[in-house]
Description:
heterodimer, A: alpha/beta, Amidase signature (AS) enzymes, 10-stranded mixed beta sheet, globular, B: alpha+beta, Arc Repressor Mutant, subunit A, 15 helices, 16 strands
Amino acid sequence: xxxxxxxxxxxxxxxxxxxxxxxxxxxxxxxxxxxxxxxxxxxxxxxxxxxxxxxxxxxxxxxxxxxxxxxxxxxxxxxxxxxxxxxxxxxxxxxxxxxxxxxxxxxxxxxxxxxxxxxxxxxxxxxxxxxxxxxxxxxxxxxxxxxxxxxxxxxxxxxxxxxxxxxxxxxxxxxxxxxxxxxxxxxxxxxxxxxxxxxxxxxxxxxxxxxxxxxxxxxxxxxxxxxxxxxxxxxxxxxxxxxxxxxxxxxxxxxxxxxxxxxxxxxxxxxxxxxxxxxxxxxxxxxxxxxxxxxxxxxxxxxxxxxxxxxxxxxxxxxxxxxxxxxxxxxxxxxxxxxxxxxxxxxxxxxxxxxxxxxxxxxxxxxxxxxxxxxxxxxxxxxxxxxxxxxxxxxxxxxxxxxxxxxxxxxxxxxxxxxxxxxxxxxxxxxxxxxxxxxxxxxxxxxxxxxxxxxxxxxxxxxxxxxxxxxxxxxxxxxxxx
Amino acid sequence: xxxxxxxxxxxxxxxxxxxxxxxxxxxxxxxxxxxxxxxxxxxxxxxxxxxxxxxxxxxxxxxxxxxxxxxxxxxxxxxxxxxxxxxxxxxxxxxxxxxxxxxxxxxxxxxxxxxxxxxxxxxxxxxxxxxxxxxxxxxxxxxxxxxxxxxxxxxxxxxxxxxxxxxxxxxxxxxxxxxxxxxxxxxxxxxxxxxxxxxxxxxxxxxxxxxxxxxxxxxxxxxxxxxxxxxxxxxxxxxxxxxxxxxxxxxxxxxxxxxxxxxxxxxxxxxxxxxxxxxxxxxxxxxxxxxxxxxxxxxxxxxxxxxxxxxxxxxxxxxxxxxxxxxxxxxxxxxxxxxxxxxxxxxxxxxxxxxxxxxxxxxxxxxxxxxxxxxxxxxxxxxxxxxxxxxxxxxxxxxxxxxxxxxxxxxxxxxxxxxxxxxxxxxxxxxxxxxxxxxxxxxxxxxxxxxxxxxxxxxxxxxxxxxxxxxxxxxx
Lengths: 482, 476
């Protein structure tokens, strides 16, 4: 079998035994890229295979493993454009903390993956480059915003990747592409070097082909960082140690608000099967209520856009990135017209929509009605979870209300697009960790995913349940036909 | 109708911490453009701020010195507006929950003491600087200053004349210098002041419409700008016009204020909590530790100087007005316990020289050791007071020890009786009339003759000996 189809832990064994060399891995990854990338378009631009130097001496936990990162994570000297025209040509002069950690772990960072512009979207269609396609059905979206990172792993163009998750941007594409994606607890992974969408919600997380790799990659990137005041000074557990522990007696909550009349029948059926499987392994299920769930999407689109409107203010054509060529504007209006033209031409429609929304909710006279109230409801959403977690170890839900949808299907209907994240958004509002892992396929052969939500810093509980489920189901072994 | 001005001041002070407010860049002035920068203060994508703990400490010191109550948790907000010198297009500041509120500052204007309310003291970051080119159709940006820690100190509208505003600023600066949190150099921009001013009919309680004045680069400019604005607003009101709420710029050359933007054009700053700096609690214990570490402040030092040395308030005020001067005084006192003599030198010729040169005593090139030595030389009769003043100026010019100057220029006092007698004979011979006057009972004539001998000796004659010798000679 070609090495690009394997996982990091499988490759490690092959390298350790001397059967394969790091060059073999990179060669297979490169061949796969050349075969499939024109169909999938998972990368934001051609990866830098030729510049990659294999460090023979690297001996970290991810030694010689090719890893791709989302186009919103800074890596020194490389283009980092958030799939946006306004960051055209921006080369980060520094490494994000996660990139530093990856490099220290011996990983080979060889490319940046496509995404929704500034992570605004659930389909990877708002990228200024091109839409990424779902490896399982090239007419479908891979989900988003980390669609490129999910599709690259699903298409075996790379062994593992990093994405970022603000409202579901790791978990929803993981679900739609049939891979494993984790959004860690807020503060578990440093955001230093992640180009912010919404600072209080963003978190970097791993995409992998199985749970073991996921635990491996999280362990590498997690930890306190003095450069990120929102990272939490707590020791990082050895997540691999929890794998293999049985799930007998684990208490799993099923929130009734997430299972409603009219939900996608195949999604519902896959969750019921998963529940039965886990029950047979000894987990205990009970229905619970998260009563403020219905407000989560509204609250999210106030808080996230408010923060985004401020975070994206720096893209103005002054220091870096795209500056519009405006005509003879040497008069006093020159500056304003440079701002307007640069931002007008540099941002795509969805980015503009969110900047305008966020600016509105923070405006004087509207602040109390929108932003201030949203913060209060956010607290209520969080309290819902606190209450459930006083009795349960994890919560099980679908990841996405539907399997992958067709490219173009929702682009003219932002509200329906926003509802793609209806099951994932509350988790970001509450700062909780959650994973999406494969739990079946539709009749048409599209992957389905389920979400396991943990307590704050409860990644071990999540991995424990997810690993047992994975080991007792065949889904993660399936590969798309490309 | 007679109008009264009501003035409130907003002062921005750059703190002198070693590094900037939210990154590790050095907090320095005057280095080459855009060399003292990093991803954080440049606001590069992905960079995050981390609060410099020493900024908080300095801010607490200031808040305590201004008698403010201090919050037990620290929260930052973003102030959003677009300007090319602001790298992120928002400023990290404090909005609805500032570090400290409700303090006061006791000031003195024309001998009248007054307590002025301090509304708030809060932390924020400075912006970069635009450099406008005359010859090119664009401007440059220097980001070195971006991220410099600032305190904003806002007064209540309780100042009622430009002179009171001036006194407030002087006393505020004095306290900041005592705390050693800023060099308060307005020329370098490390202290900046905006003023809000309105007029109301005398006796009226309700405040009038205010204007905000900016761009005043010295305390004198604040006074001049306010005086101009009082005249302008008075003329408006007397002409039946209404005052427009607006921001006005002081033009130093034209000595006028000009409208910059009206209230309608004012920004909506869309303040909201800075999500990259989560609020944190601030223990009362830490505040108390900082309080205990505060240096002696001007008011306390004034009282101590009056109580322990018997100085008049006027004398003590001069000494304490500048922390360096007061420190210098105490350094001298440790070596030579003649407080009155030392004070006379500092309050007299040295203060005059400081004013002439517009510098602090540290920049004068005078050490406490040398001043003490000079005073000792007067005390032991080596030089007269008059010559000593001359020696002092030469010390400032040459940075030499007083002994060296005195011996090089042969300035030692002449106390040799024979030498003095020779000079007396010369003067007596040339001033018959004065001698006769003295003998006729005019005591003043003696002083005249002493003066003539002093002149002859180029000031070196010992005046005390001279007096006795001349009197004895004339009575012969």
